[in-house]
Amino acid sequence: xxxxxxxxxxxxxxxxxxxxxDLIWGLVDQGASVTLVVLSDRVAHALPPQVPxxxxxxxxxxxxxxxRRYALHAQQLDNWxxxxxxxxxxxxxxxxxxxxxxxxxxxxSRSRLANRAWYCxxxxxxxxxxxxxxxxxxxxxxxxxxxLYSGRKVIGVSQGIIDRLRSVxxxxxxxxxxxxxxxDLEAIRRQAMVSPHDVPERFLLFVGRLDQRAKRFDRLLExxxxxxxxxxxxxxxxxxxxxxxxxxxERLGLENNVTLLGHRDTPYGYMKxxxxxxxxxxxxxxxxxxxxxxxxxxPVVSTDCPSGPRExxxxxxxxxxxxxxxxxxxxxxxxxxxxxxxxxxEQAVSELSRVxxxxxxxxxxxx
Length: 367
Description:
Elements: E1 3-8, H1 15-29, E2 33-38, E3 53-55, H2 63-67, H3 69-83, E4 96-100, H4 102-108, E5 118-121, H5 125-130, H6 135-149, E6 153-156, H7 159-167, E7 175-178, H8 185-192, E8 204-207, H9 212-215, H10 217-227, E9 233-236, H11 242-251, E10 258-262, H12 268-273, E11 276-279, H13 288-295, E12 300-303, H14 309-312, E13 321-322, H15 327-339, H16 354-366
Parallel strand pairs: 1-2, 1-4, 2-3, 4-5, 5-6, 6-7, 8-9, 8-11, 9-10, 11-12, 12-13
C-alpha cells in the first residue's frame, strides 16, 4: 500500500483546498493510505473517515517569533513526526510527501521532510510572488523564490506554471512535473442534470470569484457589449469586487442584459445549459472552470492568459482562444460561438479525470 502525506496551509475556501480534498478522495479510492497535516485549524471540507487530519496551527507571540515563524512552525511539524514512532505510522518513511500552498512550502522546506517532499504550486508564480513589485524589491523577492524552490522537486498544476517558474523566477528545480487538477467527471455530469430554475432558454455564462484584478470584468463586459449578441450574460459567483462589477455593468448600459446571480453551490447545471462559458482573465493557475464547462459539453471563449487555457482548449476548441489584450477578438469569438457553436468532444477532458490524475501522483511515489 502506498503511504502518502499531504501538508497544506488550510482546508478552507479557495480552489487549492478543493483540489487537495479531491486528490485525497481519489488516492483512497485507489487504495493509498493518506495522512493530512493542516498548518492551521481551518478545515471546512469532508474527508474520508480513514484519513487522519492533524491540525498544527502556529501563532507567533512576539516580533521575534513572527520573524522566525516558518522555522518555528517547522519545529512543530518535526515534533509531530517524532511522536509518530511506535504509533503504527512510520511518519519518516512516507512513500510520497506533497506540500501544497506557500506557507506549507516555507515550513516543509525547513523541516525533516525538506528533501523528500514535492512542492505543488497552484498559482502563476510571477503574479503570486512578484505582483506589482518593481526595481530592487522585485529582484529581492525573485531571489527568495529561487532560493526556496531551486534544488527541490516541484509540481505545477499547469505547464505554464513550470515554464514561468523557470524562465522568470529563475528556479532550477531538481525535478519539475506538470500534474493538472483532477475532475470528478461522473459527479459533474450527474449534478449537471439538475436544471436551475433561474435561467432563460439561451444565455452566456461566467463562473468565478468577483475579482477584478484576475478576472478582468472590464474586458468581459466590454467584449460582450461589442459582440452585439442578443443572448443575456449570467454571472455566477461572489467576491469583494461585486459593487465594482455592478458599476461597470451600469456604466456600459447593460443592466437589462447582465445578471449577477451570486454564489451557487453547484454551477454545473448552469454550465450544461449555457451556449458558452466566457473567461476573460489576465492570469490563472489552472482554470478548472474551463475543464468543468467542457465536461458539461459547453464550449468556452477564453483569453490566452498564463497559465492553463491553451493546455485545455486544444484542437478545434482552440478556435475560441483569443489574445489576452484584444477585446475586439474576444467580441468576435463570442459572436462566433453564438452563431456556430462547436460540439465539444466527450473525450476533451478525459485525461483530467480524477482516476488518471491520481494515478500520475502515485507514479511519483514509484520514482
